[in-house]
Amino acid sequence: MSFLFPEGARPNVADVRLDRGFAYLQNEALRIEQHDRAMERLCAFCGKKSPDPLPKCSLCKSVHYCDVKCQSAHYKAGHKRECVEFVHPPATTAFMTKPLEGMQYARDPIFAHGHVEGMGCWVSSAGRIDGFLQHLTDELRLTEDPGTMERRHAAIGADLKTVKKHKAFLANLLSVAVLVQNRRKDGRAMTVYGARTQVVCFPDKVQEVMRGRVEGDRVATFEKAGHTFAAIGVAEDPWTKTPRVLVKNFNGMDMEDSTPLPAGVHDASRAIVTLQPGDYALLHMQFRLGDGSTHTRDWHAFALLHSLSVTFLPALASSSLPSSLSSLPTLPGVSPGSLDRSLAAEFGNGAPPSGPLRAPFDHAALRAHYADDVARGVYAHVESHYGTARAEMMRAMMALGEDAAGRMFGMLEEDGEMERVVGRMREAGLTEDR
Question: Does the pTM of the predicted model rise above 0.90?
Answer without folding.
Answer: no
